[in-house]
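hiii so um. not sure if this is the right channel but i have a protein structure encoded as tokens and i wanna go backwards to a sequence. like what aa goes where. can anyone help
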């Protein structure tokens, strides 16, 4: 039985002071054993938020990291740095990073491997554009992203990972995929994981839906067989996040 996981992606929001205010507002409301809850915060907020989350069951996540161990990569943050600061999860290959910062399946793959090497759990994102959906190539695109993103990763590592299906047309738009659309793709992701890594790995890997999840639509999305929770952007910055966690 897979445990559900609800992760808040704060994106480029909240200064360290504001981050602490948000943690204070939410922490008692979302501190639970029944669902894994993760706050994926901006890099500058990691250290103060790690301190503020001590004594809770809420896990800390980052939104990106570099795939090299260390060196001349100005402005970047390594897996070892995240790990030392108490980070447990790292979002990799978010569509905003693919669109604005040139991330590719190849760089995502290198990051996934480096994160796993350091004991971080990747939340690897995939998703189609509206054009791809309208052209009927959603499944091919998603299957390729999954196969390339996980290339060369050991099956037992894939089993520990989280994959987030985030249709790009649903992110930050208020336009959520229907429960059926979300389930169809999450089931296809589980199928491709099964084809490449075996049925046991497919059964264990957790697959989230992301894209305008809110307090109203979370219950029916998370009730679907292959949806193991959500990656939540906008609504993770509000008390509405409590509602979403309750449905996890
Ligand atoms: C996201 O940031 O991954 C996301 C799904 O955002 P939103 O919930 O705002 O659509």
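sure thing!! here u go:
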């Amino acid at each position: 039985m897979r445990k559900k996981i609800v992760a808040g992606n704060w994106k480029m929001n909240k200064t360290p002071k504001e981050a602490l205010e948000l943690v204070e507002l939410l922490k008692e409301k979302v501190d639970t054993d029944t669902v894994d809850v993760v706050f994926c915060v901006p890099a500058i907020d990691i250290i103060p938020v790690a301190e503020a989350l001590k004594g809770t069951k809420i896990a800390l996540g980052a939104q990106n990291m570099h795939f090299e161990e260390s060196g001349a990569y100005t402005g970047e943050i390594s897996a070892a740095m995240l790990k030392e600061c108490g980070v447990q999860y790292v979002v990799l290959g978010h569509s905003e990073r693919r669109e604005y910062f040139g991330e590719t399946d190849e760089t995502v793959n290198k990051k996934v491997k480096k994160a796993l090497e350091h004991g971080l759990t990747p939340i690897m994102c995939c998703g189609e554009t509206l054009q791809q959906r309208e052209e009927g190539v959603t499944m091919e695109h998603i299957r390729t992203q999954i196969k390339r993103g996980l290339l060369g990763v050991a099956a037992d590592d894939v089993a520990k990972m989280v994959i987030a299906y985030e249709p790009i047309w649903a992110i930050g738009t208020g336009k959520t995929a229907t429960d059926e659309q979300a389930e169809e793709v999450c089931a296809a992701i589980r199928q491709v994981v099964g084809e490449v890594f075996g049925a046991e790995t497919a059964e264990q890997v957790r697959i989230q839906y992301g894209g305008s999840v809110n307090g109203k639509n979370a219950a029916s999305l998370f009730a679907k067989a292959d949806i193991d929770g959500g990656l939540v952007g906008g609504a993770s910055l509000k008390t509405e996040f409590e509602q979403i966690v309750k449905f996890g």
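oh and The radius of gyration is 17 Å.
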